[in-house]
TrEMBL record:
It comes from Luteolibacter soli. It catalyses: Hydrolysis of terminal, non-reducing beta-D-glucosyl residues with release of beta-D-glucose. Residues 647-716 form the Fibronectin type III-like domain. Keywords: Glycosidase, Hydrolase, Signal. The keyword Disulfide bond does not apply. This is beta-glucosidase. The keyword Cytoplasm does not apply. It holds the Pfam family Fn3-like.
Length: 727
């Protein structure tokens, strides 16, 4: 194509998009000009549906009256069409938008986000989010309240499961990937939906790890640690954002003009929707920053909220909105909602397609991806004497632990429209795998073994003549996610007793850890020969875990979050600052505990393989880098074993001297690479010099000249270093 033609085409396309945008703008103004204040406030409100996806009569009435913007939880072409018909029969004919918490899958459930992040494979996360969007949109859900962009450093906080762990760079990569997966290039497409970054910001710092609690986080820590994943998500095009329940520096995020206007709108240029969390506006009364619900609604509107979910405070504020400024805020919020609905294509296609829904839901390709994701999320924490993979000679496999056959728990928290009966458990997967070539010994935990008067069996007796034993321990699905904060993150004594009894049999065994958070499992780490962290792996957790246990998949997962030895160490992360007296073994007067080591049980970035890799120190192409340049280096990765495998090469920096106390190491880049047995691959890295800077207490970003230590390795604790100077 010749340049003039190409240039002309580009100009024509730009003109087309501008004209369409103008046309949309004109349609929005035409609609807005005819709405009453009540109808406008109705557009700023989403109400909830039943857990099963149906609508509530009182909400159908709101739709029929034309004072409802949309719902969340109502899903499926049936129920949504019934409500949509009501909305399109009103005076203004504005379609409803149907939202839902599609956090790690709609009907096909993928590993929980923290588990998916353990793959260190953002492309995988994007593919999973794309499937979630395809199934959701087929069910006429066009807005998800995901991805969670929270940085979490406290495993007492059950919602640590919803994000991508403790590191800003890893979390940014996964947040952006999930936004791309949900939204694609056009959110009006029949297989895409609008994303929502949440919970903005700092909710992972809830004091004591107790959900909804005060988050005492500095503005510098917000900028350095908690903002980056949100900024990455916005740069990826996220159409909406949800403030957290927390109060930041004493001001609830839901009524925080600095957060929602100065940072979000003015500094970052966000033009999308700010949607409240569930009844978060009404909870401003609990925070005691609003005397009543109607005033809470007015405060939220003035702080920068566009849409309220579940509560009706902004609607109740109607009587207070009697001045030009408030009315302008309402009009601008309605403009953003209408623009969202046009962008989603809801004015052109307000209904779902039952045929598309039937074809998309639980498509075999989706289940195949879910199995791949479950396997890639697994982290091999320990594997002494090659206990894993299970040898082919093992024909009698005993599987113990209730979680091994718990269809609901393996889906984890926020299970979308997932149905437990769709899940394939580990017991079922191993049975399918062995077929007639072996036997699975599984006694449902607590079941009576034969006669009613005998005590319930835990399966240990039945396992005595097995060739190999798998013990599954961890958290039930209702122990993880929102409102599941725990003061102890130990395993239940009953599970420890079970592992103790299996260990005493003296047979080869491996422990599978199913959990939504790090757990303090020091005794397991000391006692068990092999431990595979499987998280809550979703609908296809069973086959995915089995693929790893039997060696079809060589595990390559790495921890996205630190596993502490004790809850008393929390918060414990890899990127802590050096302190005034860094630990010196044997020196009393240095930063340490008198009763436990400072080090974690397993560090951020840790994960083993069935093979072994040698990673070189970073080979810099220059030792002196201009402040506006790029740090370029290579790393060679050698697979020293006899199995092909993936390795996640991690690159960390340390700023040797700065104005603030900077972390002892900071992840700046990572790559998951495949290395055939016996081969060596070279991995190229680039880190823009500007990424080496840091935030000052006064809110400015600073890049100092000086020396940096560059570290590369297979975990935050296994690194080899080099150094360079920034000019
Ligand atoms: C919940 C959660 C939020 C979710 C919302 C709607 O309380 O905090 O993540 O999107 O309510 O279900």
């Amino acid at each position: 194509m010749t340049r003039p033609f190409c240039l002309t085409l580009s100009l024509l396309l730009t003109a087309f998009h501008t004209a369409r945008a103008d046309e949309t703008g004109q349609r929005i103004e035409a609609i807005l000009s005819k709405l009453t204040l009540e109808e406008k406030l109705g557009q700023l409100r989403l109400v909830d549906g039943h857990a099963g996806g149906g609508w509530k009569p009182q909400h159908m009435a709101l739709a029929q009256a034309g004072v409802l913007g949309g719902t969340f939880n109502v899903r499926g072409t049936g129920p949504t069409s019934e409500m949509q018909r009501a909305a399109l029969s009103t005076r203004h004919k504005i379609p409803l938008v149907f939202a839902f918490d599609v956090v790690h899958g709609y009907r096909t459930i993928f590993p929980v986000p923290l588990g998916e992040a353990a793959s260190w494979d953002p492309d995988l996360a994007e593919r999973c989010a794309a499937v979630a969007a395809k199934e959701s949109r087929a069910a006429n859900v066009s807005w998800t309240f995901a991805p969670v962009a929270d940085i979490a450093r406290d495993p007492r906080w059950g919602r640590i499961v919803e994000g991508s762990g403790e590191d800003p760079v890893l979390s940014s990569a996964f947040t952006a990937a999930r936004v791309h997966g949900f939204q694609g290039k056009d959110i009006s497409a029949p297989d895409r939906m609008m994303a929502c970054l949440k919970h903005f910001a700092g909710s992972g710092e809830a004091e004591g790890g107790r959900d909804y609690n005060f988050a005492d986080v500095s503005l510098r820590a917000l900028r350095e640690t908690h903002f980056p994943p949100f900024l990455a998500g916005l740069k990826a095009g996220a159409g909406s954002i949800m403030p957290s329940f927390s109060a930041i520096d004493g001001v609830p995020a839901t009524s925080n003009p600095w957060l929602l206007q100065d940072v979000l709108r003015k500094e970052w240029g966000f033009e999308g929707i700010v949607v409240s969390d569930y009844d978060a506006i009404g909870q401003l009364v609990n925070h005691r920053v609003a005397p009543s619900w109607d005033e809470a609604g007015q405060i939220a509107l003035r702080s920068g909220l566009d849409v309220e979910i579940w509560g009706s405070c902004m609607m109740q504020a109607q009587g207070l909105i009697d001045n030009a400024d408030d009315l302008k805020l309402v009009d601008n919020a309605v403009r953003r909602v209408l623009r969202m609905k046009f962008s989603l294509g809801l004015f052109d296609k307000p209904y779902g397609d039952p045929a598309r829904e039937k074809e998309a839901i639980l498509h075999p390709d989706h289940l195949k991806l879910a199995r791949e994701a479950a396997a890639k999320s697994c982290v091999l924490l320990k594997n002494n004497n090659q206990t894993l993979p299970i040898p082919p000679a093992a024909k009698k496999i005993a599987i113990l632990g209730a979680l091994a056959n718990d269809k609901l728990s393996q889906m984890g928290s926020w299970t979308g429209d997932g149905h437990a009966e769709d899940s394939v458990t580990l017991v079922e997967a191993v049975r399918q795998r062995l077929g007639n070539n072996g036997t699975v010994i599984y006694t449902p935990a607590g079941s009576s073994s034969g006669f009613s008067f005998r005590k319930p069996s835990d399966g240990v007796d039945e396992a005595k003549d097995a060739d190999y034993i798998i013990v599954v321990v961890g958290e039930n699905g209702d122990m993880t996610g929102e409102a599941t904060s725990r003061s102890s993150i130990d395993l239940p004594q009953q599970q420890l007793d079970l592992v103790q009894k299996v260990s005493a049999l003296g047979k080869p065994y491996a422990v599978v850890l199913m959990t939504g958070r790090p757990l303090t499992v020091g005794w397991l780490a000391e006692t068990c020969p092999a431990i595979l962290l499987a998280w809550h792996g979703g609908t296809m957790a069973g086959p995915g875990i089995a693929d790893v246990l039997f060696g079809d998949v060589n595990p390559a997962g790495k921890l996205p979050v630190t596993f502490p030895r004790s809850v008393g160490q929390i918060p414990l992360t890899y990127n802590s600052t050096p302190t005034s007296r860094p630990l010196v073994e044997g020196d009393k007067w240095t930063s340490k505990y008198t009763d436990i080591k400072n080090s974690p049980l397993w560090p951020f970035g840790h994960g083993l393989s069935y093979t072994s890799f040698q990673i070189s120190p970073p080979l810099l192409d220059k030792r002196t880098i201009p402040h506006d340049g790029t740090v370029r280096f290579k790393v060679s990765v050698t697979n020293q074993g006899e199995r092909d495998g993936d390795e996640v090469v991690q690159a960390y920096i340390q700023d040797d001297v700065a104005f603030v106390t900077r972390p002892i190491k900071e992840l700046k880049a990572f790559k998951r690479v495949s290395v055939p047995a016996g081969k060596t691959v070279t991995v190229d890295f680039e880190i823009p010099s500007k990424d080496l800077g840091y935030w000052m207490p006064n809110g400015t970003y600073r890049l100092d000249p000086g020396t940096f230590t560059l570290m590369t390795g297979s975990s935050s604790a296994q690194v080899r270093s080099s150094s360079f100077s920034l000019q």
